Amino acid sequence: MRAGMPGAALVAAVLIGLSATAPARAAGLDCPVVGPGGVPPLAIDDKEIGRLTSGNAADLADEVGGLVARAKAATPSASDDLIGDMLIGAYCPIVARTSATPAQRWRLMRQFDRAVYRALGAAALPQGAEILADVPLPPAVYDRLRRQAETAGQPPGAFMATILSRAAGP
Prior knowledge:
Blueprint: H1 7-26, H2 46-52, H3 57-74, H4 80-96, H5 102-123, H6 139-152, H7 156-168
Helix pairs in contact: 3-4, 3-5, 4-5, 6-7
């Protein structure tokens, strides 16, 4: 115990600190602390909240791309890790308050984390670099493309990139 701090005051400070994070912990998530002593806050409006927790990976990737751009504009000197922490700090309490099961909450958090770091990686690519695109495909379509790629002697990703490049034209 620090000199000069009565035991009751120390206990009160610990309880206040724990109560501030209790809702997220009670929901099975250990969310980052946002604000003084934690990561800088990032405001997310109600419409974004709905889109971020819809569970649709393609829509989530688009929304996260916009949030990454907003966070980079708001804090230009921030590292990608800090921006990732800001986004996770804003998103985690939202997920913790949903009616989702603990397993669904963890799935949403993992999906969001992947989208954040994929968007940060894409934002760091030099001009003219290859861009990764997430395109949801039914398993049967992917299997046909994979077999066609094998026949062409290419990995599936390279084969699909060739198809999309031709479709986009010059």
